[in-house]
Each structure stands twice: as structure tokens, then as C-alpha cells.
Amino acid sequence: MAQAIGPAASGGQGEPLPPVQPFAELAARSNFSFLDGASHPWELAATAKALGYSGLGICDTNTLAGVVRGHVATREAGLPFAVGCRLRLEDGAEYLVWPTCRSSYGRLTSLLSRGRMASSKDSCRITRGDLLEAAEGWVLAVVPPEEPGAEPAVTFGERVRQEAAALRSRLALPLMLAASHTLRGDDQRRLDRLAALAASAGGWLLAVGDVRYHVASRRRLADVLTAIRLGTTVDAIGAAAEPNAERRPKSLAEVALRFARHPEAVANTLRVLEATRGFPLEGLRYEYPDEVVDPGRTAQETLEARVAAALAARWTVVPAEIERRIAHELRLIGELGYAPYFLTVEAIVRFARERGILC
After folding, report:
1. Which of 247, 250, 339, 357 has the fewest Cβ atoms surrounding its Cβ within 10 A?
2. Are strands 176-179 and 204-207 parallel, antiparallel or unpaired?
């Protein structure tokens, strides 16, 4: 059941309720955020559809593992989907990223791959410099510090203004500040401060739900996941436990009420959703890596050259039938575009033979 919101949330008793606005939840974490998200992508999509959302975005932490199932689930639900990711940097700062085209998606995937390769198995090392270098064409939102009741630090405000200035001509939309209202007690003051900071930086405020689960009853599971992640028991997680069940998708009326003084933050969710429509996930096709290609040659030319060298090494005079069969097979490989695959097999076999491995 949704938690009731008293008149104080809208500014005072007797005030009219704010009009309901279209809204898209763009920063939900799914169970692909390991030991964090407590709902499947399809559960989040079904809930977003039932609540009348305009779209859904999944931003799992330092991974794109949940976006395929999120894409499939939202397509089945008839909802637009925004491919996204929550980047957690090595200094603990967090950003929400939504690519707007294939090249900006490629920069995001490369950033994640390099971060994984530069760290241990269960972590991803990304620096602020790495993020700023890769940000061309992204929609980017800064996630403010989470400490309850804490003012955004002076250094945080300075960082936001510096990054907004540095990225102004490179992002698809102005740099944003992700703002959530989860009934912490200081929510409205915090929203006001973040809105002022966004304005001072020339950026936008963006309404997000800070979603970890699709229904309130998953709060208990979220706490279990937190306990496992911290290596302790649920009874001992203390302040790391969910203080309430508010990190779930809200009704459109609840969203409007909580952001009544900042309706532009809700409207900005649709602007982000529209900006990401230029990158449909179904438009991606697998492309074989080109590391096995000789410099200055295509994969087909490289394969033909290596076949010719192998033939010369095996026969002084190549039998006519062998020449005919090889020519036919190379022509078929070229038509199907399979040359990179055969080059990979050749590289594996060569590696094994050089080391005396039976192959």
C-alpha cells in the first residue's frame, strides 16, 4: 500500500493539490545491481505501466546487465525505455547516464569495460577524468550525497558548477541534479537547495524515485541484500537499513505532490526520455572485433593472405582441386562476412601450437 502523505508535504493544510503531470522513472535499479536492487526488470516495467508512467529507465550500478531485460519488458508493456547506467566512481561520487546515440552508448560501454579490466572481479574503477572524457552525447545527472539532513557540501556545489561548465557543449542536455523525495524529513528543504544549485550551474533539476524495488513489501528483501553485501545480519545493519518503504515507484499523484514546488523536475523526465529515443536498443547488431586483422587489410584480405601462406607452406605446387575448393570457400566466407571468425580460430590454433598444446 502507498504511504499516505499529509498536507505538510504540499506546503500546508488547505492548499489545493497540484495537477498531475506525466512522469517517467528513469533511474530504477533492478536485481542486476548485485545485492542492491530487489526487483526484476519485468516487475519494474509492469508497475510503471500500471501507474501510468510515460516511460521507464533502468540504471544499474556500473553495469548495463539489466537493460536487455528492461528493454524486452517495457516493449511488452508498451512503454518507452531509456537505456541507462548509474556510475559509481572510485571516490564514491555517483552519476546517472543515458546515452542518446550509438556512439555515446559505445563510449559508455568502453568506459565500463576499461573500469572492470582495471580492477578486481567485483569492482569497477572509474575516475572522474574517465567520466568527463567519455561524456560526449550523454544525458548526465549528478546524484547528490545521501546523508539524511545534510546540506550539499560547498565542495559538492563547486564540483557541480565546474562540471556543468566543462560539459556544457558536450552533453545532449544541460547537466542535471537527480532529486528524490523519500519522506526523510528534510525533503522539501533539500529539493529547494538542489534546485537553487542546479540553477546556479545552468543545469536542471530531475525528479527520480531512487527506486530499489517495485512494491513496498520488497523493502525487507532489500534489507536482506544490504546485510549480505555488508557481511552482517539484518539486525546489525543499523542505519544502512531502509528507513521506510519509499524507494518504490509512486503514483503520478504522489509524484506531483512531492514535487509540487518544482514541477519542472517532473517535466524534465520527459525531456530526458525524448532525448534517448534516438538510441533504440534493438538497433544494435553484434560486430566482431577487428584485433585479428593485419594493418591496412580487411578481415577478408587478411584471411586470404594467411590461407595463401599456409598453402605455400604445405605444397610446392597446390593441387588444382584444392585451389578450386579453397577459392569457393573463401568466396562463400566473404559473402557471409565470416572472415573475422576464422581469423580468431586461426589465432587460437597458432597460440596453442606455439606452446605445445594439443589442438
Report:
1. 357
2. parallel
Task: Give the start-end residues of each E strand in the chain.
Answer: 24-28, 55-61, 81-88, 94-99, 138-143, 176-179, 204-207
Going by the DSSP 8-state scheme, the letter that residue 336 receives in this structure is H
In this structure, which topology does domain 18-283 adopt according to CATH?
A: TIM Barrel (3.20.20)
CA distances from 10 to 51, 258, 301, 310 (A): 21, 7, 68, 78
Determine the number of helices (DSSP H) and then strands (DSSP E) in the chain: 12, 7
Locate the domains of the chain by residue range. 18-283, 299-354
Whole-angstrom distance, CA of residue 27 vs CA of residue 182? 14
Q: What is the pLDDT of residues 164-183, one digit of tens each?
A: 999 999 999 999 999 999 99
Residue 197, φ and ψ in degrees, nearest 5: -65, -45
DSSP per-residue codes, 65-129: TTHHHHHHHHHHHT--EEEEEEEE-TTS-EEEEEE-SHHHHHHHHHHHHHHHHTS-TT-----HH
Read off the pLDDT of each residue in 177-200 and give the average, rounded to a whole number: 94
pTM attached to this predicted model: 0.81
